[in-house]
Amino acid sequence: QVQVQESGPGLVKPSQTLSLTCTVSGGSINSDGFYWTWIRQNPGKGLEWMGHTYYSGNTFYNPSLKTRLAISVDTSNNRFSLKLNSVTAADTAVYYCARVSRHFYFGLDVWGQGTTVTVSS
Amino acid sequence: EIVLTQSPGTLSLSPGERANLSCRASQNVGSQFLAWYQQRPGQAPRLLIYGATNRASGFSDRFSAGGSGTDFTLTIDRLEPEDFAVYFCQQYGGSPPLSFGGGTKVEIK
User: Fold this and answer.
1) Which of A 34-53 lie inside 8 A of B, CB atoms?
2) pLDDT above 70 for B107
3) Which of A62, A106, A114 is facing B96, going by the closest CB pair?
4) Does A62 touch chain B (CB under 8 A)?
């Protein structure tokens, strides 16, 4: 059974870069039919799709974040990563990595437990 | 840009009652590409419905969903205590490629 797990610092200073990694276990990130995605949830708010990547490296970004966001894939280590630069307090959120599955009509069928990132000096 | 609007924002019901949740899209959504999620407090969302009508494994048949085009619904029959949660709809294929509705909280009355 495929699982994903987020890792990274829980505290980032304003104007700095937020970096998170998602490690995939129980299956290969190279598998066809899946996108690997980052979702965030501001405290008490809804879900925001940030972007996703295919194992080939093709990426898609939320236009609202595109200028600050980079998502990359590391197939040799079965993981993918997020870098969000110039962060502000508005980027404080729970960050989830997840799998988008073509089999489930592009629903997100595997989620990490989420990692809380606070932007504060 | 496809915007998903969920209503109501909060639904206050008693166990045993039926919950009717709505997800309305600002533009047509491919009916196959509409999903629903359940999120309990402190947990990650969990895929509940995919392809607008298909129930994911592990969920009771008390959950059903339908709709097409711009109007989609999620119905929960005979609410159980574990059903009280927040429910999100999600579309794929529009612009942006993936987006979520704002959520409906189903709370105990």
Assistant:
1) 37, 46-49, 52
2) yes
3) A62
4) yes
Tokens of B1: 């840009």
Residues pairing with A17 in the sheet: none
Residues in chain A: 121
**Is B90 touching A (CB cutoff 8 A)?**
yes
pLDDT, residue B31, reads 67
Residue listed under structure tokens 């490296």? A57
SS3 track for chain A: CCEEEEECCCEECCCCCEEEEEEEECCCCCCCCEEEEEEEECCCCCEEEEEEECCCCCEEECCCCCCCEEEEEEHHHCEEEEEECCCCHHHCEEEEEEEEEHHHCCEEEEECCCEEEEECC
Tens of pLDDT, residues B41-86? 999 999 999 999 999 999 999 999 999 999 999 999 999 999 999 9
Contact A49 B50 (CB under 8 A): no
Q: Give the residue from A10, A22, A47 showing the smallest Cα distance to A97.
A: A22
Residue that is written with structure tokens 């200073």 in the block: A13
Does residue B36 surpass a pLDDT of 70? yes
